[in-house]
Amino acid sequence: MKKEKKRAKVIRTCGRICSGKSTYAQRLKEQLCGVILSIDELMLDILGGDTGDRHDEFVSRTEKYLYKKSVEIAKAGIVVILDWGFWKKSDRDFARSFYRENGIDCEFHYISVDDDEWKRRIEKRNAEVRNGRSDAYFIDEGLAAKFESLFEAPDKGEMDIWI
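RESULT FIELD:
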């Protein structure tokens, strides 16, 4: 018996840390019966919060693995939501090219928040981490500044959906 090939897509969320990507990804997951792939979730679940000097190496390896898995899942007919920031234009360009080369439809969804809201969300997340209600990364001022310096805001032409 020949199986019918389902057509799915990969939705890539883009935005600064604490912009609401994970909350948005959860909503998409429920609406589309999709699967979320998250670098942070995998890193925290497997390696814990303290990866020291090897953090960037582990992020890179995790990302490569999730790219492979996302193609496998999408080709099985399931919508994949990538819950990581795609902070640099070069990362967004790579993702666009990667999925096109693998014959996978994809969209970029950008979650935009102003600076005041961003700072409020960081404070909220940090309070949840401190109180044991979240296992997310704690974002101190130095880490927030580092992430902000790494983020390259997309232009309207790069994104399929702007939130």
